[in-house]
Amino acid sequence: MDNKLLVIAGPTATGKTALAVDVAELIGGEVVSADSMQVYRGMNIGTAKPTLEEKRGIPHHLIDVVAPDQEYSVAVYQKQARECISQIQTRGKIPVLTGGTGLYIRSVIDDYDFTEVLRDDELRAGLLEEAEKNGSAVLFRRLTEIDSKAAERLHPKDTRRIVRALEVYYLTGKPISASWRLENKEPLYDLVFLGLSMDRQDLYRRIEDRTDSMIIAGFVEEVQGLLDNGYSADLSSMQGLGYKEILAYLSGTVSMEETVALIKRNTRRFAKRQLTWFRRDQRIIWLSAVSPAAVQEAIAFWGGVE
Known about the structure:
By secondary structure, this protein is α/β, with parallel strands linked by helices. The chain has helices at residues 16-27, 52-55, 74-90, 102-109, 121-134, 136-146, 148-153, 159-172, 200-217, 219-228, 243-250, 256-279, 294-302, and strands at 4-9, 29-33, 60-61, 94-99, 190-197, 285-288. It is 51% helix and 10% strand. The chain has a six-stranded parallel sheet with strand order 3-2-4-1-5-6, with helices on both faces. The longest helix has 24 residues, at 256-279.
């Protein structure tokens, strides 16, 4: 069976989905999303999900997989993504894996072993309470001491994942990073790994424009609708970029102007972290996101159109 896989990665707002669709049309591909927020149903505007028009008839997978109150992990994603890729290949099509969640992409193309571990709701609740009382920085420093590899991959304010990493350590006596080991450094697929980049200031302007467009498209109403449908503001999904800022606005703690400014600032910071993550992977072939020839270049690196 043909084991080809095309990956298109890069920071948010660089046009990964549009390029993936363009290329998929030309090489006979199907898109597999690698976005940790697009898996949630009903969270469309804030996650920049492709519309029906933007998909242009190209099948898209692993979008709208779970409800916002359902748990979803990178281990589950890894299993589902690899199954999707295998099915696409069996149909004689080319899987195009695209998104900005670096760990999701790496979990698919490298031999990450997400060992099943126990969970303890009481322990987790205690850690979350400690984080709320003393701040996530206290837990992050503790994680740095016991599992520096995990700490390197987490943001100091990513309370949910910090708590999870500590929970695993306290339950098993082993760092969670031990379950991320790479059994070998060879890719599991016949891989072409492309990345989209652009001038930092141009990217920031694009982020700001997209944020404004999201607000106009009804981002606030989308979040209010989720609350009206019974989804708690405390859910992990509701702490996603943009959603937590809108929730603060809806609670009356910040103005609309402040909310938009915060979303833009936090998205810029997020894009910077994404770029740092992807720059570490030497397999990535970088393309200019604004080049008119980006599609042709992607096709050329892929090996042309059969």
